[in-house]
C-alpha cells in the first residue's frame, strides 16, 4: 500500500473504528476521506513532476560533457480508454515527450546507428539511473532516443492514467523511432537497434515482434514475457493495476493478456535479439523468460540468450556499477556491434569503464 493509502486507512480507523457514528455521519466521513485521498494523489503527481524537472537538469550534469541533449514532444495513437468517445478531440493522437541524446563527437554530415531505448517500470520514467549506460552508448557513437511512453511518471495524473501496458505504449516507442529517422539526417535508417530492461525489455520484444524488419537487432534484459504467468505470482496490488486499465482480470480476459505478452507473439519475430535473465531476479521470475526462450526455440527463431545463475544485483544485475555488471554490459555491446557497427566500438572493458566513469 502506498503512503496515501496508509493515511486513508489510518484516518478511517480513527473516525469509524474508534468513534461511534451514525450511518449518515459515516457516509459523510467516507466522502471526506475520498476527497482526502484524491488530494493525496494530486500531491504525489505534483511531487513526481518536480522530481522529473530536477532529474532533467541532472542529465546535463551527468552526460552533458559527451552528449547533445534534447527533449522533444511527439504524438502516438489516441488514448486506449476514452471516457467520452464522442467528445471533441477524443480521437486526437496522445502527445508524449522523448529524450534525444546525440554524441558530441559525431560528424553531422555522416550516418550513425540509432538505439531506441525503452525505460523500465510499469509506472516509471527515463531517469539518470541510466546515466552511465548513456555515457557508454555515447562513447561508441550511438544516437539514442528514449520515449516517455503513456503511463510514465512525472507528467501529471492524466498522463499517468493513460497507461496501456503491453498495448499502445509499444506504438509510442515505435513513433519515437520513426521521428528520429524522419528528422535527423545523421541517423542511419538501416542501423537501428532497440534495447531495454524489465518492462523496457518487454517493449523491446513486442516492438521486434510487431514491427519485423524495422530494427536491425535488439537486447531484452530481464524482460517481462508472459503477463498471464506474471499475474499468477504478482501481488494483489500489482494485479489491480492491470485489471483497472485493461478492464478485466486475466482470468476473465485471457485473450487480451495474451495479446500483450511477448511469449504469445514469439512466432512474429524476424530480427536477431539477445535475451538476459537471472535466476535470483526478485521482480521478473526467471520462469517467464524461460518460457519465452522455449517459445522462440520452438519457432526456430534466430536469437541468443544467457541465463545468469544468482548474479549479484537480482533484477538489476547488469545495470548496476559493479565490475561484473560492466563485464556483462560489455558483452551486450559486443552483440549489438555485430549488427549496428558503431564507429567507435569498445576495444576493452577498460575503455568502457573510462567512458562511463571517467576513470578505470
Write structural notes for this entry.
This is Peptidase S9 prolyl oligopeptidase catalytic domain-containing protein. InterPro entries: AB_hydrolase_fold, Peptidase_S9_cat. Keywords: Hydrolase. It comes from Odoribacter laneus YIT 12061. GO terms for molecular function: serine-type endopeptidase activity. It is a single chain. With 360 residues, the protein is α/β, with parallel strands linked by helices. It has a single domain, classed as Rossmann fold (3-Layer(aba) Sandwich), CATH 3.40.50. The protein is built from 12 helices and 8 strands. An 8-stranded mixed sheet has the order 1-2-4-3-5-6-7-8, sandwiched between helices. Strand 3, helix 3 and strand 4 form a beta-alpha-beta unit. Helix 1 packs antiparallel against helix 2, helix 3 packs across helix 12 and helix 5 crosses helix 6. The chain is globular. The mean pLDDT is 92.
Give a quick summary of the entry.
Keywords: Hydrolase. The protein has twelve helices and eight strands.
Radius of gyration: 22 Å
Which spans have pLDDT < 50 for at least 5 consecutive residues?
Answer: none
Q: How many β-strands, per DSSP? A: 8
Biggest sheet descriptor: 8 strands, mixed
GO molecular function, one term: serine-type endopeptidase activity
Keywords: Hydrolase
Pfam families: Peptidase_S9 (PF00326)
Organism: Odoribacter laneus YIT 12061
Topology:
Layout: H1 3-18, H2 23-63, E1 67-75, E2 95-103, E3 112-118, H3 131-139, E4 143-147, H4 157-161, H5 169-183, E5 187-197, H6 199-210, E6 217-221, H7 227-233, H8 236-246, H9 254-259, E7 273-278, H10 286-298, E8 304-308, H11 323-340, H12 349-357
Parallel strand pairs: 3-4, 3-5, 5-6, 6-7, 7-8
Antiparallel strand pairs: 1-2, 2-4
